[in-house]
Specification:
Elements: E1 11-12, E2 17-18, H1 23-33, E3 42-43, E4 63-66, E5 71-74, H2 80-92, H3 107-118, E6 125-131, H4 133-138, E7 140-141, H5 152-174, E8 179-185, H6 201-218, E9 222-227, H7 233-239, E10 243-247, H8 252-255, H9 259-267, E11 271-277, H10 288-304, H11 309-314, E12 316-320, H12 329-347
Parallel strand pairs: 1-12, 2-3, 5-7, 6-8, 8-9, 9-10, 10-11, 11-12
Antiparallel strand pairs: 4-5
Helix pairs in contact: 1-3, 2-5, 5-6, 6-7, 10-12
Length: 348
């Protein structure tokens, strides 16, 4: 946790993906609607290179893109040892530039930072995101067709690669003069404990901590974990992020099944990012007042546990439930409008 606990008071930000094509216009709107914590957008409709797993693969060894399936797989090369040696030489020397995310893979990152530099934006924070290590490894299969979660040698390299790429990103965000926030996006952990997530709890915590601890040791940033479905929230708390981001529209009651963990997290300086606006099931009929009422119910439950309202307000952010990439452009824009108005209403 950071030494000085930040006071968010329901500042709003985004999760990552957007359905738009206009890179300049989208970043301008993000700075307009989410002026306190702007995020760089992932233009998933623009190119497969911005899909969340592919987007963070540059510089990580033994990976090839299968364009027609928009996926990554382990290359069938005989130079496995040589590629791993090269990778670890760059990783262990802290060569972050080797692991840079290029403009071709993340034009939103470059565009947002350029607009912040060119304008006079009074945002205290700027938010980025990376695919989380568990979701990244789970989304890649080796030459035997198995997930890299079951290949210890390659899993270690993948997790280390995600860690140093996240550090490169934090360094770029910090150049804006704003405090960086970076979320590890872990949709794979939705429904953790089912037959569809065959990974042990301790392994999840250990691999998340590799990335979190690496960032803490090498930078000054706030680190969040985003999971848009139900999961073992005590496991997420134990991994040690500064911010937990969850789908508060669909899974509020499930999240609140962990009172002891949530109270401890808040009392130690943790921040809850409430994903209060639905994305997958957005209808366009949602209103600020309805979402305010729904959020108020969740906040009220935590107040009943003995957490003071003022503390909870300081330790609360707002986001959409998940990325907006699957929404229509009109719905995504309306989501940002509602998010902006809801943040203003709650901050008062």
């Amino acid at each position: 946790m950071p030494d000085a606990i930040p006071r968010f008071n329901f500042m709003a930000t985004g999760v990552g993906s957007v359905p738009f094509q206009d890179t300049d216009g989208t970043c301008r709107e993000i700075l307009e609607y989410l002026p306190r914590v702007p995020f760089w957008p992932q233009f998933v409709k623009r190119t497969y290179l911005e899909d969340m797993i592919i987007q963070f693969s540059e510089g990580i060894p033994l990976l090839e893109i299968k364009e027609e399936k928009r996926s990554l797989y382990v290359s069938q090369t005989s130079n496995v040892e040589s590629e791993l040696v090269t990778f670890y030489d760059h990783f262990l020397s802290g060569d972050t530039d080797y692991f840079a995310i290029s403009r071709e893979y993340a034009i939103g990152l470059y565009t947002l930072l350029e607009q912040i530099e060119q304008g006079s934006f009074d945002c205290p924070y700027v938010k980025g995101q990376t695919v989380g290590p568990i979701t990244f490894a789970a989304g890649i299969t080796d030459t035997n067709g198995n997930s890299l979660l079951h290949n210890p040698e390659l899993l270690e390299a993948m997790v280390s690669g995600i860690a140093i790429k996240a550090l490169w990103q934090v360094i770029q965000l910090a150049k804006s003069g704003k405090k960086p926030i970076i979320f590890l996006d872990e949709p794979y952990l939705s429904g953790f404990g089912s037959a569809f997530t065959p990974i042990e709890r301790n392994a999840v915590i250990d691999n998340l901590k590799v990335v979190i601890d690496y960032l803490r040791e090498n930078s000054d940033t706030l680190i969040g974990i985003h999971c848009c479905g139900n999961t073992d929230w005590s496991m997420i708390v134990e991994a040690g992020p500064d911010i937990i981001n969850f789908d508060a529209f669909e899974y509020m009651d499930y999240f609140l099944l962990y009172p002891d963990d949530i109270k401890r997290f808040l009392k130690e300086g943790g921040i809850i990012a409430w994903g209060i606006i639905p994305t997958a099931n957005f209808t366009g009929k949602e209103t600020v007042d309805e979402l305010f009422s729904k959020l108020e119910q969740g906040l009220g439950r935590i107040h009943e546990w003995g957490i003071a309202p003022a503390m909870l307000a300081e330790r609360s952010m707002l986001t959409p439930a998940c990325g907006m990439g699957t929404m229509t452009p009109a719905h995504a824009k309306k989501t940002m409008e509602i998010l902006s108005r809801l943040s203003l209403k709650l901050s008062k």
